[in-house]
Amino acid sequence: MGGVSHPRSRRVSAGIVGGSGYSALELLRLLARHPRLELKWIFSRSHTGEPVASVYPSLRGVVSASFAPVEEPAALAGQADVVFFATPAGVAAEQAPLFLESGAAVVDLSADFRFRDEETYRRVYGKSHPHPEWLASSVYGIPELFRDELAHARLVGNPGCYPTAALLALAPLAREALLDPDAPIVVSATSGISGAGSQPGPAYHFPGATENVRPYGVPGHRHAPEMAAVLGRLVPPGKSAPVLTFIPHLVPASRGILATCVARPAREMPDEELLERYRRFYASHPWVRVLEPPELPQTKAVQGSNFCDLAIRWDPVAGVVVAMAAIDNLVKGAAGQAVQNVNVLMGWDEREGLEVVPLYP
Ligand SMILES: NC(=O)C1=CN([C@@H]2O[C@H](COP(=O)(O)OP(=O)(O)OC[C@H]3O[C@@H](n4cnc5c(N)ncnc54)[C@H](OP(=O)(O)O)[C@@H]3O)[C@@H](O)[C@H]2O)C=CC1
Ligand SMILES: CC(=O)N[C@@H](CCC(=O)OP(=O)(O)O)C(=O)O
């Protein structure tokens, strides 16, 4: 289960399972301009053999491929160096090992390989993992936090969209044990509707979603234990991370996540110190932009791009820090981060294929 070995100069072939979903569409958009990663096959259960551009009008004249003319993705094992699973939870857990055993690297955009132990997986997802033997070697795919481990990974558990934003916002404090372990962290976040995928339930349809803002999954959203597990790994050995509560909200936008995290630091931390720490922490990470005051993150400033915009403030009245992050849920929250992870796995520049200027306004 060691790392992938590919000459840095060679073009690497990619396969995609879950072909007609939103994350697959984003992967195709990014792969279309990636100089080293090229689409070899794309599998769709519902559009077998159809031209990709007939499903995604935005890809007309850009992607000439058709969905693979096979009934099962297993028929494609051994034909790509990297396989992306852009499928609902449970699919990669069953099918990824076949591709791993055929020698491919796997980046799973679902939640199947985000936890490293089966007990946590079972507690959060309410069922046993069909291939727990792969969990310990999977690497949580936030390159800004786990770059060294990812460089040697074969299997990447690409993070949830909300955890990407919240963990990037909190990581500099967690890594340096600057969070008070006895004060709960509050993560309040908004998501655009594409966060629920391309076939969401009736509550996500236009009449109910437009001109409406609503919380959901409170308490007990599955991203709370995901954030908690990773936060626990970020704090130095022997230290504990604070518990956290998570309040997601659905907002009437197509894309974008804004996460606002409120935490009590271990001691008073003036704005200048916080800002300096955040600047230093992310200095070598091209996809995180630490904003200078008075700027604050906004989803539109990152739309369509792999950027995570961060701001950090000290609130002297409440004695808390407020860490804010904006991402595009489909890019840094899903497909963009998946491509960034492959760039790290292959030893390429993390920016390869991702240099899209955000679409503003
Ligand atoms: N949307 C987002 O912002 C984010 C999504 N994710 C995760 O990424 C994964 C993909 O998300 P997204 O693209 O939004 O989801 P979509 O629902 O848009 O797409 C998922 C695709 O998977 C295929 N599929 C559906 N059911 C099954 C099944 N039972 N077995 C095999 N394939 C199936 C379908 O494609 P086809 O019929 O073509 O095979 C479907 O279009 C999910 O696990 C999601 O939780 C993670 C972070 C952010
Ligand atoms: C708006 C919306 O519904 N968002 C999704 C999160 C998308 C995601 O990251 O889901 P996975 O962890 O399953 O990959 C949700 O809250 O369930």
UniProtKB/TrEMBL annotation:
Transmembrane annotation, as ranges: none
Stored InterPro entries: AGPR (IPR050085), AGPR_AS (IPR023013), AGPR_dimerisation_dom (IPR058924), AGPR_type-1 (IPR000706), NAD(P)-bd_dom_sf (IPR036291), Semialdehyde_DH_NAD-bd (IPR000534)
Compartmental location: Cytoplasm
Molecular function terms, GO-annotated: N-acetyl-gamma-glutamyl-phosphate reductase activity
EC supergroup of this enzyme: oxidoreductase
Sequence ranges assigned to domain Semialdehyde dehydrogenase NAD-binding in this UniProt record: 13-153
Active-site residue list: 161
CDD domains: AGPR_1_C, AGPR_1_N
SMART domains per UniProt: Semialdhyde_dh (SM00859)
E.C. number: 1.2.1.38
Broad class of the protein's primary localization: cytoplasm
Role played: Catalyzes the NADPH-dependent reduction of N-acetyl-5-glutamyl phosphate to yield N-acetyl-L-glutamate 5-semialdehyde.
The protein, known as: N-acetyl-gamma-glutamyl-phosphate reductase
